[in-house]
Amino acid sequence: MSFEQKLEQQIRHIISNWKDEDIYAISFLVTTNESSIYKGISNFPEFSIGYNTEFDCDGAEQLSDERWNFAYWCQNNIELLSAELCDMSDELLRWYEEQGVVDIGVESEDDMYDENFMYIGKGPNGYWELLCLISDIARRIQTDGWVEKRFGQIPIIVHDMEYSWYSSKMTENANPNGEAKAFLDYLSSLIDKD
Question: Residue 31 pairs with which residues in a beta bridge?
């Protein structure tokens, strides 16, 4: 079984055990942190999944921070990848090797910001590739109807902690039938405020 298949199998297993009936969004949180070190590689990626409920957001308005800002969510994410989960981390390293990803965890400062100091980077080496893989898995479990069958038409939000520019791109890819429209409208409203 490939790394991608194992990851998808774990995602489906965790989600299938969720009991709350009023889940309105699923979080696929992908982050890096310099203090996250695995086999000498700092900025080792972490991936966790969780959700938020109507109860937890207390019926917040459709475009509100309380509904869409991950900081307000109930923080129930379960890790699938991290420096502490050695088996999957080893699988990830093998997958990186197959993909030709080198210098994992390194990010060139020349590629991080544009002339207006807006972040345009794709994260440390390996982050973008993993983010794309996770977004594609999310898309698959949306398009095969598996999520809708369990929860109705709800979005899978593929994101980091800051909702970087790629959060909208990856979330849009993950929700091909418009499931994430309200979230994407929320992100657009944040840009309009700036």
Answer: 46
- Per-residue pLDDT of 127-177, as tens digits, reads 999 999 999 999 999 999 999 999 999 999 999 998 887 889 999 999 999
Q: Are 57 and 103 in contact (CB under 8 A)?
A: no
DSSP string of 85-121, one letter each residue: -HHHHHHHHHHHHHHT--STT---GGGTB-TT--B--
DSSP string, 9-20: HHHHHHHHT---
Convert the pLDDT of each residue in 15-43 to its tens digit. Answer: 999 999 999 999 999 998 888 888 998 88
Q: CB atoms < 10 A from the CB of 167, how many?
A: 21
Q: What is the DSSP string of 35-86?
A: T--BTTBSS--EEEEEEEEHHHHTT--TT-HHHH-GGGS----EEEESTT-H
